[in-house]
C-alpha cells in the first residue's frame, strides 16, 4: 500500500515542547518498505529529511521544515528468555518508551525500570543515550537496527558501533545522521538486579531490596513530584546536560560550594549536578521570563507555559547559560536538539 504524503503539517503538535512551524511534507512510516518509499520521494523532490519519533527532545524552528518529515510508527515487541536469566527484547523504534518499560516490568524483567515515565519513543533512546536515576540505555542496548537513507542499506549496529557517551552517540555525529533507526535490541534480566544508588531511591528503600515494580512506582512518584505533566505543559524534561568538567575545576567548585553533588565520569573528568547549580547556587528554580521558565519543582526542567515560540525558548536557554557562566564559569549545553529549517 503506498504511503500517504501529507502537506503543511503543524509540527508543534508532534513535539513535547509544543513549538515548531509547518512541515512541507509529512510521512508516517510503519515498516521498512514505507521508509524506502519516503526516502525515494524526498530524493525525487530534492528535499532534506527529518526523522521524528516522540518529539520529546527536539526544538524545531518557528519557520517549520522545508523538507520531508518522516514520523516513525514502527511497532513490535518480541521477548526471548534464556536459561541463564537473560532476556532479550527486540522493540520497534516507534513504540512509546514508557509503555515498553511498563510491560517489561509487568513481566518481572529488570533493566528498564529506572527509565519509567520518560516521554518519547524507543527509537530516540540510542540517539540521546537516554538515561535517568543511574541507568543509561547504553548499559542495556545490545544492537540497533538501522537503515542508511543515503545508500538504502539495512544494517545492525552493535553496542560499540553506537559510540555511546553521556547523552551522545554515533547517531548524533555527521555520519550517523544518515541512519534511520527501525528497532532496538535490549538486554534485560529475570534475576534480581535493582539499581537504587540514586539518592531519592536510597532514601525510599534504605537497606531493603525492592521488587522491580516497586522501583518503577518509586521512579514514577519521584518524577511526578519534580517534573511537569508533559501532556499539559510544553517540556522536554531535562533541557540541559549535566556539565562534565576536569578534575581541578571540580575541586575548585567543591571548595567554593562544598555541598555541590559530583560524580566520577572517568578519564579525569567529573560530572556536576546542574540541577543543584541552577537551584542552590544561581537561585533560578521557578525563574520565569515571558512564556518560558525553569520549573518550580526542578530547575533543570525548562517549561513552555503556553504560547512560547522556539525563538523565545532558545533566547531563554541562552540567558540561563550566561547566568550560570557568570556565577560559576561553567559552560552548559542543551540536551535538546535544535532543528533548523532547510
Secondary-structure topology with pairs:
Elements: E1 5-10, E2 22-29, H1 32-44, E3 49-52, E4 58-60, E5 65-72, E6 77-81, E7 86-92, H2 97-106, H3 125-128, E8 131-132, E9 135-136, E10 141-148, E11 154-158, E12 179-189, H4 199-205, H5 212-226, E13 234-238, E14 244-246, H6 247-256, E15 262-266, E16 269-272, H7 274-281, E17 288-289, E18 292-294, E19 301-304, H8 310-328, E20 337-339
Parallel strand pairs: 2-5, 3-5, 4-20
Antiparallel strand pairs: 1-2, 6-7, 7-12, 8-9, 10-11, 10-12, 13-19, 14-16, 15-16, 17-18, 18-19
Keywords: Cell cycle, Cell division, Cell shape, Cell wall biogenesis/degradation, Cytoplasm, FAD, Flavoprotein, NADP, Oxidoreductase, Peptidoglycan synthesis
GO biological process, one term: cell wall organization
Catalytic activity: UDP-N-acetyl-alpha-D-muramate + NADP(+) = UDP-N-acetyl-3-O-(1-carboxyvinyl)-alpha-D-glucosamine + NADPH + H(+)
Describe, in plain words, how this protein is organized in 3D.
This protein is an alpha+beta fold. The chain has 3 domains: 5-72, Uridine Diphospho-n-acetylenolpyruvylglucosamine Reductase, domain 2 (2-Layer Sandwich); 77-222, Uridine Diphospho-n-acetylenolpyruvylglucosamine Reductase, domain 3 (2-Layer Sandwich); 229-339, Uridine Diphospho-n-acetylenolpyruvylglucosamine Reductase, domain 1 (Alpha-Beta Complex). 25% of the residues lie in helices and 29% in strands. The protein has 8 helices and 20 strands. The strands form 6 sheets. The protein has a 5-stranded antiparallel beta sheet, with no helix packed on it. Strands 1-2-5-3 form a 4-stranded mixed beta sheet, with helices on one face. The model has no long low-confidence stretch (mean pLDDT 95). Its cofactor is FAD. It is an enzyme of class 1 (oxidoreductase).
Amino acid at each position: 500500500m503506498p504511503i500517504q504524503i501529507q502537506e503543511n503539517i503543524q509540527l508543534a503538535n508532534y513535539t513535547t515542547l509544543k513549538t515548531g512551524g509547518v512541515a512541507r511534507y509529512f510521512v508516517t512510516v510503519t515498516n521498512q518498505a514505507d521508509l524506502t518509499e519516503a526516502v525515494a520521494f524526498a530524493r525525487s523532490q530534492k528535499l532534506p529529511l527529518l526523522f521524528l519519533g516522540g518529539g520529546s527532545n527536539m526544538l524545531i524552528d518557528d519557520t517549520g521544515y522545508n523538507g520531508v518529515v518522516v514520523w516513525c510508527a514502527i511497532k513490535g515487541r518480541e521477548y526471548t528468555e534464556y536459561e541463564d536469566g537473560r532476556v532479550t527484547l527486540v522493540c520497534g523504534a516507534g513504540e512509546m518508551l514508557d509503555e515498553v518499560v511498563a510491560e517489561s516490568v509487568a513481566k518481572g524483567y529488570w533493566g528498564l525500570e529506572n527509565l519509567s515515565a520518560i516521554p518519547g519513543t524507543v527509537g530516540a533512546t540510542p540517539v540521546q543515550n537516554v538515561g535517568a536515576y543511574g541507568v543509561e540505555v547504553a548499559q542495556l542496548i545490545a544492537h540497533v537496527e538501522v537503515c542508511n537513507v543515503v545508500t538504502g542499506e539495512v544494517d545492525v549496529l552493535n553496542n560499540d558501533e553506537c559510540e555511546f557517551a553521556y547523552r551522545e552517540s554515533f547517531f548524533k555525529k555527521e555520519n550517523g545522521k544518515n541512519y534511520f533507526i527501525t528497532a532496538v535490541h535490549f538486554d534485560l534480566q529475570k534475576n534480581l538486579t535493582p539499581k537504587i544508588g540514586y539518592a531519592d531511591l536510597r532514601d525510599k528503600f534504605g537497606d531493603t531490596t525492592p521488587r522491580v515494580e516497586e522501583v518503577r512506582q518509586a521512579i514514577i512518584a519521584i518524577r511526578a513530584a519534580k517534573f511537569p505533566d508533559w501532556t499539559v505543559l510544553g517540556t522536554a524534561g531535562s533541557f540541559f546536560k549535566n556539565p562534565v568538567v576536569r578534575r581541578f575545576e571540580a575541586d575548585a567548585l567543591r571548595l567554593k560550594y562544598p555541598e555541590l553533588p559530583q560524580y566520577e565520569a572517568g578519564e579525569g573528568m567529573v560530572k556536576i549536578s546542574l540541577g543543584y547549580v541552577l537551584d542552590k547556587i544561581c537561585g533560578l528554580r521557578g525563574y520565569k521570563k515571558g512564556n518560558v521558565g525553569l520549573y518550580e519543582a526542578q530547575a533543570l526542567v525548562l517549561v513552555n507555559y503556553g504560547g512560547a515560540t522556539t525563538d523565545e525558548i532558545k533566547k531563554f536557554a541562552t540567558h540561563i547559560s550566561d547566568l550560570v557562566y557568570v556565577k560559576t564559569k561553567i559552560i552548559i549545553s542543551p540536551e535538546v536538539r535544535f532543528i533548523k529549517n532547510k
